[in-house]
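Blackboard transcription, Thursday session:
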Amino acid sequence: MLRYALLGLLSAEPRYGYELKAVFEELLGGTWPLNIGQVYTTLARLERDGLVRCEVVPQDLLPDRKVYFLTPEGETELQEWLSRPTQGPIHLREELFIKVLVASVAEVGGPGSTEVGAPNLIAAQRREHVQALAQIQRLRQDPALPRPTALLLEAAALRAEADLKWLAVCEREMGDRKRDEQL
Amino acid sequence: MLRYALLGLLSAEPRYGYELKAVFEELLGGTWPLNIGQVYTTLARLERDGLVRCEVVPQDLLPDRKVYFLTPEGETELQEWLSRPTQGPIHLREELFIKVLVASVAEVGGPGSTEVGAPNLIAAQRREHVQALAQIQRLRQDPALPRPTALLLEAAALRAEADLKWLAVCEREMGDRKRDEQL
DNA sequence: CGACACATGTAACACGTTACATGATTTG
DNA sequence: CAAATCATGTAACGTGTTACATGTGTCG
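(Written on the board underneath:)
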C-alpha cells in the first residue's frame, strides 16, 4: 500500500525519506499520520526488491540525505499496479462492520441479560461519524487544497454519509427487533 | 479484527475451529473467504492471551475437536471492544483511494508522456464497482439471509454506491483538467 | 539550557495471507 | 481408486505500527 504510494511519489521526482513523509501526509490531507520509521522500512524493502535505488547526498551541517529514485523495474511495477483496478473493492472486513455485526450476534453478559449493547454502540458510532464528517468538511474548506487531496476528502465525505445512512437503518432495525421481542 | 469476531461468536456458544470458520463465513454472506489456518492461529493467540480456553472432545471415527469458550477476561475484553465506537472511522488508507490518488500524481512514462493512466483506471474501477454492486444485490435477494448479514450487505451496497458517485466525480474532474491543459 | 527541526535507522510485535502437512472417513 | 469432507495445525512472508536510538543545528 504505502509501497505504491512511495513509488508514485518517486516517479514524479526523486526524494529522500524525511521529505517523502511530509509530501505524503500533505497529499493525504493529514488523515494518515505516518510514522517516519515506516517510511524507511518501506524504502528498504523497495530497494531490496530492486524497485528503487538511492544516491547519498552529503550536506555540511545537516545529516546526509539518501535520495531515492525509481529503477526501470520500479516504473514497470508502478504502471502495472495502476493499470489494474482494485478487486473486490468493498471490504466488509472492517472494524466498523464487524463491530456492529458482532454486537448484534454476541451474547454479552450471558443468556438472559438485558441486551442493550448494540443500540448503545450504534448511537455512539453515529456520534463518532458525525464528528468525523464535520472534520472532513472543515478540512475541505481550505481553498489551497491540491486537487487530488480535495478529491480524496470528497470520497471520505461520501463514505461517511453512506455509513451514517446505514447506521440509521441499523438503529431502526434494532428498535424493530426489540419491539418484536417484547410482543 | 478476526480476534474479536471469534470472541463474539464464542460468546454466544462454545465452538471448535472448523465450525467457527463455517459460521463466520455464513454470517459474512460469503464476502470474506477465511483461510482455516488463520482461524487456528487466531485461536492460539486468543488462548495465549487468556481470553479463551478449550476442552478437547474426543470423537470416534472423526478427529478430536477442541471446543473453545470464553474466559471471564475474554468476556470483559469483548464487552470493552463493543462499548467503544471505531475511532477515525473513514479510512483513506485503502487501495482504492491510494490508487486513484497515485494515478493523478504519478508521472508514468516520464515527463512529456501522454498521461492517460488515470482516466483508464477510473473507467476500469467503475466497471469493477458496478460488477461488485450487482453481486451484492444478487446476494441480498436471498430471503433466508439472517438479519445481521442482510444489514452488512446493505452497508456494502451503500458504500459501493457512494464510491461510484465519487468515481463519477473523478472522471468529470479528470476530463476538466485534460481540457484545461489543452487550452 | 531545553525544545524542536533535520535526517537516518533498528527491533519487536500484531495481523492477515498462503502454502504445506497430517490422517481418517465418506462418496462417486 | 480418486476426491471431498472432517479436523487439526505449522512455517513463512508481507505489511502496518510503535517504540527506541543517534546525532547535529537552531531558536527562544
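Lecturer's comment: Residues 1-3, 35, 37-38, 41-42, 45, 61-63 of chain B lie near DNA strand C (CB under 10 Å from a C1').
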